[in-house]
Amino acid sequence: MRTLALVAATLLAGGVGAAEAQDPQVKIRGTPHDFLYGMSFEGRAGTAVGDHGLVLATRDGGQTWTRQPAVAGGLGLLTVSRSQGRCLAGGQQGAILRSDDCLHWESLKPVTDARILGMHMNARGVAYAVGGFGTVLRSGDWGRTWEVLAIDWKAVLGTDAEPHLYGVKVDDDGAATLAGEFELVLRSQDGGARWQVLHRGERALSALATGPGGRLYAVGQEGLVLRSQDDGRTWAAVDTGSHAVLTDVWASPDGALVVAVGVRTVLVSRDGGSSFAPAAAAALRQGIHSTVHGIQDGSGGSGAHAVLIGGSAGAVTQLRF
Description:
Helix content is about 5%, strand content about 40%. By secondary structure, it is mainly beta. It has a single domain (about 5-320), classed as YVTN repeat-like/Quinoprotein amine dehydrogenase (Methylamine Dehydrogenase, Chain H).
């Protein structure tokens, strides 16, 4: 993800060893002032969003991209989610947009003035949005209407702090898992009425990813990668050898490949997240990588993936594995 707060927190990057160079290819690049924060795919159809209402669309797995007219009155869009051909996007000043075709966008009346930092929508139209100061929103109608969910943060944290929330995943059964500051991982299985704390610590988590067989991944500050192999009931930190702010993570459907991105950093795991090494290409050690997603890559044979990374200068860079 794509969070302004985490990206601004530090510009450290590191790592030991090196992942095999994957011949990074820039598929699109905007102006030096452009920035992409979020990206979401269904099959080979994808949408990316960023600063000043920036929206990019692809129908060929990220090989070519079309820049759409700016939306949201030029506000920054920090997150996007696709499901069943529909899209949701959110960003600054509580902005939420929806589209029934991921091409024509409708701006909704904000229900909060907090930044929307993460969104996810399942195949049944249940969506959650999370953001600044503990903001949690829920929709059950493909994002047409939203309710504000109140969480008793003092009961959760034991303090009056309202943590920023950055990552969210919604299962097909409607269960929602959130991640944010204080290494919080929360889950609700009843529409947001009650929340269970699955993990907490000291650093901020910026994104969540799901893998097969109950595997979950969360990334954040100081090179932090957390992995769960039991659907979030327990979590363990992975020694990445990095101190970078990590902003997003993606895991392949077969569970073997995991890619985490961040400030001047791309970390690659080929063993399901047991170990990570930095990508070797010099171009990947520049700029801020804010969002990552992989798709099956038929040109590389069985099990091959094209991993797309967005961030600085509105660029989308492809790595093949």
